[in-house]
Amino acid sequence: MKYKIVTYGCQMNVHESEKIAGLLEGMGAAACKEDESADIVVFNTCCIRDNAERRALGNIGVVKGEKKKNPSMVIAVVGCMTQQSGMADTIRSRYPYVDIVLGTRNIFALPEEIKKVLAARAAMKKRSDKRYRAFETDYAEDYLALDEAAPVARTSFPNAWVNIIYGCNNFCTYCIVPYVRGRELSRPMPAVLDEVKRAVDEGYGEITLLGQNVNSYGHDLSGGESFEKLLREISRIEGKFRVRFMTSHPKDLTDGVIAAMAESGCVCNNIHLPVQSGSDKVLRDMNRRYTRDRYFSLIEKLRAAMPDIGITTDVMVGFPTETEQDFKDTTDLVKSVRFSNAFTFIYSPRKGTPAAEMPQIPYAVKRARIGELIKLQNTVTKELSEDYVGGVYEVLTEDVSPKHPGMLCGRTESGRLATFPGTPDKIGRFVNVRITEARSASLFGIAEE
Ligand code: SAH
Ligand code: SF4
Ligand code: F3S
């Protein structure tokens, strides 16, 4: 059997798809090549914004045609979208050709459910016989144990994703994640350390620790575990490797974590610290539980501890209570912090969240605001890129450049993408690159021997 996984959403989902791949390979299936038709199609969905959801539903609609050509195909929908209230029923009635719907804490049931679908089909005598369909979105109680036992088929060498905490307890008023991913669950520290060690031994040069809020790691464990302690323990693992993590919530970023980052030989001078807004009023309405001043002070502490740190962020425009003045507070903050990059989003109302109930801002206003913000950040990114020209930076080679034939690409410790001439045997290796040119967010250079 050949399988295909279509992934939407964040890194968490990218890694979850690696686990799904591990489960499917465990039952003897193989990844399908571009031109092959799949026997098992899994949609790993996201519902963070309306467009993510529409894209997933659109493509689930499209697969109907493929299924007509290949009636033995098994179609599964998993991930965050399935966990929204009413969604499993919607799929049940509107997408009758979908065989399996599993929630965010049920993916380990996938092989069993596929077997049941196939067995029921084999036993069907007439077209009118009832098919077997699976709908399971109640969180599995033994989720952590199932997760530890499941295999992972990694797909992003030389980077290894490693989960440290699942779920979210923060309930930012715009966000659907706590409703679809459940409450926070930290993995035991020995399990995380083991996985990191194994990945380093297998030659992965970069480990990215994943969680909706990595800074709250350990609060639900009983041995005094914390994110700081985890970073310090990981730093004692032998071998040449880098550590990144995402995402950090500013309200929980402690001095101890900053010190652990600065003192560690492997944790990168790089942090993704989503600010969302520069207005205290909007931050309060979002339930972010930090102020603009507190955010500035974190930036100061990070830069004092690691002068060359690369800081990226997420910014949202068009939150219901955002006025022109609030938006100006955001652009002012973006101007003064000088992020190396910012991911910018238009607020999208999510059913069931408090902000979706508030009076909304016209779309045209949101559009204009995001346009201005993107322009501003592009200018900052370009200016910061110029500073790299002439310097030599250690880069972990990730891949051949998708856009420039004969070139390789990788990241500096600070998280900047660098492109340089080289052969694919360098993939996974650390090389020193002299930067000769900066083009907006991308750096170009030459590898030094
Ligand atoms: N846990 C991470 C964020 C995960 S979602 C954190 O707290 O930082 C990634 C980003 O999507 C968020 O930082 C936010 O900027 C954006 N986002 C979340 N909900 C959104 C919504 N309803 N509309 C638009 N953007 C949203
Ligand atoms: Fe969503 Fe806030 Fe949790 Fe991040 S911290 S996942 S933005 S609720
Ligand atoms: Fe989307 Fe779920 Fe990630 S909603 S952004 S895939 S946590």
Summed up:
This protein is an alpha/beta fold and 449 residues long. It has helices at 11-26, 50-69, 87-94, 110-123, 143-149, 177-181, 189-201, 227-235, 255-263, 280-285, 292-305, 324-337, 363-386, and strands spanning 2-7, 30-31, 40-45, 74-79, 100-102, 134-136, 159-163, 165-166, 185-186, 206-210, 242-246, 270-272, 310-317, 341-346, 392-400, 407-412, 417-421, 430-439, 442-448. The protein contains 13 helices and 19 strands.
Care to describe what's here?
This protein is of the alpha/beta class. It is built from 13 helices and 19 strands. The strands form 5 sheets. Strands 2-1-3-4-5-6 form a 6-stranded parallel sheet, sandwiched between helices. Helix 12 (324-337) runs parallel beside helix 13. The model has no long low-confidence stretch (mean pLDDT 96). Bound molecules: S-adenosyl-L-homocysteine (SAH), iron/sulfur cluster and FE3-S4 cluster. FE3-S4 cluster binds at residues 9-10, 12-13, 46-48, 80, 176-177, 180-181.
Helix content: 25-40%
SS summary, helix count? 13
Indicate the mean pLDDT.
Answer: 96
State the major sheet. 6 strands, parallel
Bound molecules: S-adenosyl-L-homocysteine, iron/sulfur cluster, FE3-S4 cluster
Radius of gyration: 23 Å
**How many β-strands, per DSSP?**
19
- End-to-end distance: 45 Å
Low-confidence stretches: none
* Beta-strand residue percentage: 15-25%
Structural class: alpha/beta
* Biggest sheet strand line-up: 2-1-3-4-5-6
* Shape field: globular
Described by its quaternary structure, the protein is: single chain
